[in-house]
Amino acid sequence: MTPPGDFKPIEIARRTGVSIRALRLYEQHGLLKPRRDANGWRVYDAEAIARLHQVLSLKRLGLTLSQIGELLARGGVDLAAALEVQESVLQAQQGQLDAALASIRVARNRLADGEALAVDVLIELTRQVAQPTPAHWGEAFGPLMRRHLRPEQIEDLAARNAFAADEANGHLWEGLVADARALIGSDPSAPAALDLARRWRSAQGRFTGGDPALTAGLRAVWRQAISDPALAPNVPIDAEIFDFVLAAGLMLKAREGS
């Protein structure tokens, strides 16, 4: 009998939805290392299940199995970081889905009533796939800053001109966003992606000074802005860019740690 807390592959497959074939594939790539019981059968304990969660979270960002193996071999990401990745992805996706569904329902209701779609509805539907860039990011981020950052942190950002809508700052981020958008769908470990992650981190560091608490607070601001249907249209990046930069950043961190 399998001890409590240990699960056979068929039980893991049934409980998580990950096929036995996928479990074997991850094992073949060295990503999973289930224990063997007294009879030589594979068993998955809490450590193996946590590792599986890491693999799936990184895979969801678009990383290949070899790239995931590289990250895990060099320390990888702990469970808290993996959960943060998963939360960011799901929140961004949920926000986009909610906004898109709301627009579609309005359009369907009007069509069902025999009405032609008004310009404002057509604009709203178009906006769901356009993601326009605001004139000044602070207009969208201001309320979230006050929610996720302490007053002294906001003062620190202000002292670093983080909220200044100057031309140089605008061009810097517009260029980064444009470069990120052009790289969507490419390999996040490729030289161009790693260079983007390095420049993105450098641009953030201008305002955070490398303060981990401030960096974490700003990450929460970005995450909520992207996932909020009311704010997302005024944010200059979307979930795809967020996910790609995050994946490239993880790969850069792994390479620098080698």
TrEMBL record:
Keywords: DNA-binding, Repressor, Transcription, Transcription regulation. InterPro entries: DNA-bd_dom_put_sf (IPR009061), MerR-type_HTH_dom (IPR000551), MerR_fam (IPR047057). The keyword Cell membrane does not apply. It holds the Pfam family MerR_1. It comes from the Bacteria. GO terms for molecular function: DNA binding; DNA-binding transcription factor activity. This is MerR family transcriptional regulator. It comes from Phenylobacterium glaciei.
